[in-house]
Amino acid sequence: MPDALDHRRTSAIAAVETWLVERTSSVQRLEAGDLVHFRGSPIAGWRVSADFADGERRVDIVVDAAFPFRPAKLLLVDRPAFGVWPHVERDGFLCLTSEQAAFSSEDPIGGVAALFEMAFGLVRRCVTESCDAEFRAEFLSYWPGSAEVAGRAVLGLFEPDGGSRAIRAWWGKDLLLLADDDDAIHRWLRACYGDLRKRDLKTAAGALLWIGRPLTPSQFPKTGTDLLDLSDQREARSILDDAAATLPGALPVVLGMRADAGDAYAGLLIPQPGVARSKVAAGRGFRPSRIPPHVAARRYFGGSAGEAFIVERADPSWIHGRARDPRFATLRGSSVVLLGCGSVGAPVATTLAQAGVGKLILVDHDGLKAANLSRHPLGAASLGKPKARELALRIRRDLPHILVEAEVMDLQRLLLERPERLLEADLVISALGNWAAEAMLDEWHQGAVCPGPVVYGWTEAHACAGHAVAILHEGKRLRDGFDSTGKPKLEVTAWPNGPTIAHEPACGAVFQPYGPVELGFITSMVADLALDCLLGGVIASTHRIWACAERLLDGAGGVWSDEWTSLVDGRSEGGFLTKRLWAAPLGAEILPA
After folding, report:
1. pLDDT above 70 as % of the chain
2. Read out DSSP for 362-408?
3. Does the structure show a pLDDT above 70 at 356?
4. Is 223 helix (H, G, I), strand (E, B) or coil?
5. SS3 of 259, please?
6. Among the listed residues 251, 265, 232, 253, the one whose alpha carbon sits nearest the alpha carbon of residue 161
7. C-alpha dihedral, 229 to 233 to 236 to 242, nearest 10°
8. What are 503's strand-pairing partners?
9. Are strands 148-149 and 574-581 parallel, antiparallel or unpaired?
10. Least confident piece of the model among 127-131, 314-318, 584-588
């Protein structure tokens, strides 16, 4: 008996075929032998003919086993060579919508009809109009290479908007790194792979030609001679001359272009000229250090075809928002000290790094314990090792452009021995959950000379509520919201069955039982408040409170406190965030979310 998906697919295919037959007399069902030649494993298809200004053209419609939940694809049978018309892929399939485009699975005919209209409109436009603007807008789709060259993935670490210039290339086994200088490459490699031998860090010459306006396919360079012509047109010939004079094994030349949707980088790999009598042909007749640059360039950049490639951008502005995040410049120039790399602090540090904060200083004196693995970003390989150092290594490995340092010490020692670490930061975050340490930090903060804000984050029992407090240098202090023993004046939850602290079978070993899901809301709130401070969005000492869903509180044996019920006007469902001024009276106004 066919299942629901089979029935839906069969019905949709039958409906589309009936509609096509009724719409045109030229429809032809594609046989199984025809379908095997298409990519994507289609299970049904049709060929339709239509008249255009330059004659008749055929279009194939194919659907796969996920139809009608995945839309049909259209292929132009009678088409010019690749690169003559936009939105026509190498195998003839038409790129008519984005990958996120969706059509109603309830109306398969409507989806196919919409694609038909797009396809026929594209052909009519290509037959009668210039399509250069469309080629330039999606330049990378028509460049003849991929994000791989000489069997290696290509990553670009160089900063955008730098104009034409010499760059450096590092050739790894599976990777070609391109950057503005050797230091950038070495920092990236050491962050990812640790200490490397000197020979493993060796780099070679590369070049970047800033073209500006994207080229159209008919203008794409194919040979070294074409690159020389482009460099002459941009008054950048000396860059190629100097690169070739170093006699690199192969010379990657990157072309930078600015499309409407942002900068794009592609290029050609120019192979080293052939070898004669154990000497590189480009340097034949000269000592290696005496080769005139223009001679080396003329020998390198001949009429032979280069290997085309696309550069996958890995520069910080691209990683953090594809060069579209207006916060990036501020965050990249920011420095944060994070105190406590436990189950609250470590996720916050990771989030801030992913958000683009340029420098993190992680402070924690303790090692990672097995009981923390389920709610900590670090894994079993870090057990017993200092959390601050291990977390710094992981962030550097994952995001090599972020500067991360570790201090394996407690806060009291840091304040007494290295207070400059805090003074240099734009923001300090405390995720210690230790009143003695945080009271000391609060005292230091009040007396320090012009420090930035301090954000404190902590959880209540079972992570059923969480708090994030930003203390500015002027105004309310942290201690204003606590009594002298560190008990908060406002708690969200109450526990009628007594203390919630659990004990391990060891002296003084206590913990709070909660998991990563409950904690995730709280760490996100702390990180969000930290970003607001860095971006200038916090102008007074502020308190943000997360209250869990009521079912979680009930399941843990807790209730809402009287103070909390009064503050939120009796709301009991939980699952929301509240903002207020820090240490404000209970009757004070709640801030807009």
Report:
1. 95
2. EE--PBB-GGGGGGSSS-GGGBTSBHHHHHHHHHHHHSTTSEEEEE-
3. yes
4. strand
5. strand
6. 265
7. 20
8. 510
9. unpaired
10. 584-588
